[in-house]
Design brief:
Number of helices: 19
Strand order of the largest sheet: 15-16-17-18-12-19
Radius of gyration: 32 Å
Oligomer: single chain
Protein name: Integrase catalytic domain-containing protein
InterPro entries: DNA/RNA_pol_sf, Integrase_cat-core, RNaseH-like_sf, RNaseH_sf, RVT_2, SH3_retrovirus
Helix content: 25-40%
GO molecular function: nucleic acid binding
GO biological process, one term: DNA integration
Strand content: 15-25%
C-alpha cells in the first residue's frame, strides 16, 4: 500500500489494476478496503498458473539469481540473503534498461540518469571511521567490516562490524575491493542444529540452514581469514563520492527464492511483486552529509534503523534483561502472524491485535520487539539508573501500554509499546510540585491554518519521538523495574529517574520546559497569551511554530526557514519529519495553492461503524425545528454509557463541523439520565453526518483577513430552567475560525438582556483573537460585531442604567468599555443574515443550508 501511494505520487498516475495470486495475504478485508478507496481493480491469477503473472515471477527470479551470485562470489553466509537482495534490487533499478521504455527504472520515475559513482562491490572488505565518543588516543581510528549495501534513508553505506556484531551506517568508509572477499570456511559442509532459522525451502538458505548460535562462529572464521591478509591501500574513500538519498527496496518487496528456479510453486511468497523503484529525488545528493541520528524509524519492521544497527538475526537482550524472563524466544527476528518471512505487504509484518495483558504481548514476537525498542530508547537517552532500593522512599510502579499506530487511512504502520509510570501513586510535594503544561487550543490551530491559507504558506508537520523522555526531572523519583525486564542479579533494585517518564504528573511540564527553553535559546519568542506559539522574524520573513505536546506544525514565508528549523530540531531531539501537514489532532487537512480544506471524514466513518449507524438512512438536518427536547421524566431509559460515548464523539467532531454544534450541545445536557427520545435525537445527528461525510471548512486565500464577529441568542430556549442560549461566530475574512453555542449562566428577563449577554461572550472571544493575531503581526481596532438586536446594541453604546438593565451582572458590562475605547463596534444585521443563528436553535432545511454555505462549509467533492 505504501509503495502504491509512493509511485502514484512520483509518476502522477493512478494505479488501475493489481494482479496477484490467490494467497490469503492478498485476499483480506484491509487490502480490499484500500483498493476500493483508491479505485483499484484487483485481479487474481488462476490456481497453479503462475504464468498469468509472468512478469513478476521473472523479476523475482532475476533478483534471486543476482543475490545468489553475490553471496557465492563474496562467500558470505546465507543469513545475509536479505541484504544481498536489497543491494541487487537497488543497483538494478539504476543499471538495467527496460526494453519497452529503453530507460532504467530510476530514469522512468525521476526523468534523469542516476548517479552510480558510489557503487561498491558487495561483500568487499572495508574500514569504517571509529566515531565513538569514548575512543582513546591510542585506539584505532577505523573499524574493520564487510560492505553489505546502501542505507535506505540516508547518504551512507551499510557495514557489518565484527567487534560490535552490528550494522553501522556511515559515509566515512574506505574500501578494499581487490582483496579476497571471504573465507573458504563457507565451502565446507553446512553447520547443523536442531533449530535452524533459515527454512530449507529457501533458495538462498540452501539445505544447510545457519542457526543463530552458529552465526558468530561463521563470522569469527570469516574475519580471521579476511583480515589476516596483508593490507593494501584503500582504493577510494567513500567521502569522495556524493551518494544520493535513495533508499534501496526492502527485502520484503522482493521474493524469497523458490526451490527450483525453473518451476513455479504455490509458495505464498513467490508471487510477490518486486519493487521497481523506491527512491527520493536525487537533489538530496547535493546536501551536506547528515549527522548520524541515534535512532530512526524504518518502514520495514525487519530493518529498524538504529545506529548501531543490529542485524535482524542478531537482536539481543541487554544484560539487565535476560531472555529467561521473557515468554517466547527474544532472539527471534520480526515475523508475520503466519511466521512467514516472505510476506510482501507491510501491514502483514505488524501485529494487528493490541494486547490487553502483559502475557499476551510477551507471547507475540512483534510486541516483544516493540518493547525491546522502547527499552533501547531508555538506554540511549539515559533515562534512569539502577540503584538499591532507598529507605522510606515511594517506589512508583510501571506498566506497559500497547497501541497500534495508524496513518490517516487507518492502516497500521507501527506496533508501539510504551512504558508508563503509575503516576497516581505520586504524592504532591514529595514526588512532584508543578504539573501544568500549556497545549494549543483547537481555535489556535484553526487560526494558524487560516493565516497560512491567507499567506499561501505550506504547513509542515513533525513529531518528537519519546517526547517525555527528553524532559529533565527536578524531583527525586524512583520506579520499579518493568515487567519482563527485571535484572536477575539485582531483582530488588529500582530505577532512579533522571528524565521524565510517561505517566508521571510532572512529565508534560518537564517536556514543555525542555522544548520551550531550546526554542527560546535558538532565537524564537513565545506568543503573548498562547505559550505554545513560537515566532521568529528575520528581514521581513516570519517563521511560525505551533506545538501540541509532541506534535509540531510550522510554516514560514521563506521555505529555507522550514528546512533550517527541521535541521535544528534534529540536532537536539529525535524527530520524525512527516512532510506537509495532512492529519493533525484528528483533523484531515488538504492544502491547495489557493485554499485549505479541513474536515474529519475518516472519523465520521469510524464513528458510524462504532455506533452501528452506517446502514441507516440519511437526514437533511441534524435536528428538526419542531423537536423540543426536555428531561422526559416518563421516557424509557437507555444505556447512559453508550449515550455519553456518542456525545463525546460528536463534541470532538465539532472541531471542524460547526453545523452540528447546537444539536450536539443540546443533547449533551441530558447525559446524566438519558431517555429514548434523547437517543433518537443523537441518532438523527449521526444520520445527518452520514449524508454529509465530506462536508468541511474551506479557508480560501483571496478572502481578506479582517476580524469580524456575529452574536445571537435564543431567549429562554431551554425548557428545563428557561435560560437562553448564546451563539457566536468569529471570522478572519471569509474564514470561520471560532464558533460557540452555550447555555447562559443567568436567566434573562428580556430578549435584549439575552442578546447583550451573548454579545459580551462574543466580544471576549474577539479580544482573544485580537491579542493572538498581534503575534502574527496584525493590529485590529474597531472590530465589527454584528447583532440582530437593536436594544442590545443600544445598551452597549449608551451608559444608561434603568430598571430593565440595572440587574445585569457586572461582568457582562465589560463590552461597554471596549466599545468606548474603540476596540469593537456594534453593528445591526437583519435576522436573515445573522450567521450565528445556526448556533442558537434548530432550523429548517432551506435556512440551515443557507447558513452553512455562508459559514464557508462546502463539500470536498464540490
Amino acid at each position: 500500500m505504501t509503495f502504491i501511494r509512493t509511485m502514484q505520487n512520483y509518476l502522477q498516475q493512478n494505479v488501475k489494476i493489481i494482479r496477484t495470486d490467490n494467497g490469503t495475504e492478498f485476499k483480506n478485508e484491509e487490502l480490499t478496503e484500500f483498493y476500493e478507496v483508491q479505485g483499484i481493480t484487483q485481479q487474481f491469477s488462476a490456481a497453479k498458473t503462475p504464468q498469468q503473472n509472468g512478469f513478476v515471477e521473472r523479476r523475482n527470479r532475476i533478483l534471486l539469481e543476482a543475490a545468489r551470485t553475490m553471496l557465492i562470489q563474496s562467500k558470505l553466509p546465507h543469513f545475509m540473503w536479505a541484504d544481498a537482495i536489497n543491494t541487487a534490487c537497488f543497483t538494478q533499478n539504476r543499471t538495467v534498461i527496460h526494453k519497452r521504455f529503453d530507460k532504467m527504472p530510476y530514469e522512468i520515475v525521476f526523468k534523469r540518469l542516476p548517479n552510480i559513482a558510489f557503487f561498491r562491490v558487495f561483500g568487499c572488505k572495508c574500514y569504517i571511521m571509529n566515531d565513538r565518543d569514548a575512543r582513546g588516543k591510542l585506539d584505532p581510528k577505523e573499524n574493520e567490516g564487510i560492505f553489505i549495501g546502501y542505507s535506505t534513508n540516508s547518504k551512507a553505506y551499510r557495514v557489518y562490524l565484527k567487534d560490535r556484531r552490528t550494522v553501522m551506517e556511515s559515509i566515512n568508509v574506505s574500501f578494499y575491493e581487490m582483496a579476497d572477499l571471504a573465507s573458504e570456511h563457507f565451502h565446507t559442509e553446512p553447520l547443523t542444529s536442531a533449530n535452524n532459522e533459515t527454512p530449507s525451502s529457501s533458495g538462498v538458505g540452501g539445505q544447510g540452514g545457519v542457526t543463530r548460535s552458529d552465526e558468530h562462529v561463521i563470522l569469527d572464521s570469516l574475519f580471521e581469514h579476511f583480515y589476516s591478509q596483508p593490507h593494501a591501500s584503500p582504493t577510494t574513500n567513500a567521502t569522495t563520492y556524493q551518494i544520493p538519498l535513495l533508499p534501496a527496496p526492502n527485502a520484503e518487496e522482493t521474493n524469497t527464492p523458490t526451490q527450483n528456479d525453473d518451476e513455479h510453486t504455490e509458495n505464498e511468497a513467490e508471487h510477490e511483486p518486486t519493487t521497481p523503484v523506491n527512491d527520493q529525488p536525487e537533489e538530496a545528493a547535493t546536501q551536506e552529509t547528515p549527522e548520524a541520528q541515534p535512532e530512526q524509524e524504518y518502514s520495514d519492521p525487519d530493518h529498524p534503523i538504529i545506529t548501531p544497527l543490529p542485524l535482524q538475526h542478531e537482536r539481543k537482550w541487554t544484560r539487565a534483561h535476560p531472555p529467561e524472563l521473557i515468554i517466547g524466544d527474544p532472539s527471534q527476528g520480526v515475523r508475520t502472524r503466519t511466521t512467514s518471512i516472505n510476506e510482501c505487504l507491510f501491514s502483514c509484518f505488524l501485529s494487528q491485535k493490541e494486547p490487553s495483558k502483559m502475557t499476551e504481548a510477551l507471547a507475540d514476537p512483534d510486541w516483544v520487539i516493540a518493547m525491546q525498542e522502547e527499552m533501547k530508547q531508555f538506554e540511549r537517552l539515559k533515562v534512569w539508573t539502577l540503584v538499591p532500593r532507598p529507605y522510606k522512599k515511594t517506589i512508583i510502579g510501571t506498566k506497559w501500554v500497547f497501541k497500534n499506530k495508524k496513518d490517516e487511512q487507518g492502516v497500521i504502520v507501527r506496533n508501539k509499546a510504551r512504558l508508563v509510570a503509575k503516576g497516581y501513586n505520586q504524592q504532591e510535594g514529595i514526588d512532584y510540585d508543578e504539573t501544568f503544561a500549556p497545549v494549543a487550543r483547537i481555535e489556535a490551530i484553526r487560526l494558524f491554518l487560516a493565516y497560512a491559507a491567507h499567506k499561501s504558506f505550506t504547513v509542515y508537520q513533525m513529531d518528537v519521538k519519546t517526547t517525555f523522555l527528553n524532559g529533565d526531572l527536578k524531583e527525586e523519583v524512583y520506579v520499579a523495574q518493568p515487567d519482563g525486564f527485571v535484572d536477575p542479579e539485582r531483582p530488588n533494585h529500582v530505577y532512579k529517574l533522571r528524565k521524565a517518564l510517561y505517566g508521571l504528573k510532572q512529565a508534560p511540564r518537564a517536556w514543555y520546559e525542555a522544548l520551550s527553553d531550546f526554542l527560546v535559546e535558538s532565537g524564537f519568542s513565545k506568543g503573548k497569551i498562547d505559550l505554545t506559539l513560537f515566532i521568529k522574524r528575520h528581514k521581513g520573513d516570519i517563521m511560525l511554530i505551533q506545538i501540541y505536546v509532541d506534535d509540531i506544525i510550522f510554516a514560514s514565508s521563506n521555505p529555507n526557514f522550514c528546512k533550517k528549523f527541521s535541521n535544528l530540531m534534529h540536532t537536539k531531539f529525535e524527530m520524525s519529519m512527516m512532510g506537509e501537514l495532512n492529519f493533525f489532532l484528528g483533523l484531515q487537512i488538504k492544502q491547495m495553492p489557493d485554499r485549505i480544506f479541513i474536515n474529519q471524514s475518516k472519523y465520521i466513518h469510524d464513528m458510524l461503524k462504532r455506533f452501528k449507524m452506517d446502514n441507516k438512512s440519511t437526514m437533511k438536518t441534524p435536528m428538526s425545528p419542531s423537536q423540543k427536547l426536555d428531561s422526559d421524566p416518563a421516557g424509557k431509559p437507555v444505556d447512559a454509557t453508550n449515550y455519553r460515548a456518542i456525545i463525546g464523539s460528536l463534541l470532538y467532531l465539532t472541531s471542524s463541523r460547526p453545523d452540528i454544534v447546537f444539536a450536539t450541545c443540546l443533547c449533551a445536557r441530558f447525559q446524566a439520565n438519558p431517555k429514548e427520545s434523547h437517543l433518537n435525537a443523537v441518532g438523527r445527528i449521526l444520520r445527518y453526518l452520514k449524508g454529509t461525510v465530506n462536508l468541511g471548512l474551506w479557508y480560501p486565500k483571496e478572502s481578506g483577513f479582517y476580524l469580524v464577529g456575529y452574536s445571537d441568542a435564543d431567549f429562554a430556549g431551554c425548557k428545563l430552567d428557561r435560560k437562553s442560549t448564546s451563539g457566536g461566530a468569529q471570522f478572519l475574512g471569509d474564514k470561520l475560525v471560532c464558533w460557540s453555542s452555550k447555555k447562559q449562566n443567568c436567566v434573562s428577563t428580556s430578549t435584549a438582556e439575552a442578546e447583550y449577554v451573548a454579545a459580551a461572550s462574543c466580544c471576549s472571544q474577539i479580544l482573544w483573537m485580537r491579542t493572538q493575531l498581534k503575534d502574527y503581526g496584525f493590529t485590529f481596532s474597531h472590530i465589527q460585531i454584528y447583532s440582530d438586536s437593536q436594544s442590545a446594541i443600544a445598551i452597549t453604546c449608551n451608559p444608561v442604567h434603568h430598571s430593565r438593565t440595572k440587574h445585569i451582572d457586572l461582568r457582562y458590562h465589560f463590552i461597554k468599555d471596549h466599545v468606548e475605547k474603540g476596540t469593537v463596534d456594534m453593528y445591526f444585521v437583519s435576522t436573515k443574515l445573522q450567521l450565528a443563528d445556526i448556533f442558537t436553535k434548530a432550523l429548517d432545511e432551506k435556512r440551515f443550508n443557507f447558513l452553512i454555505s455562508k459559514l464557508g462549509m462546502l463539500n470536498l467533492n464540490d
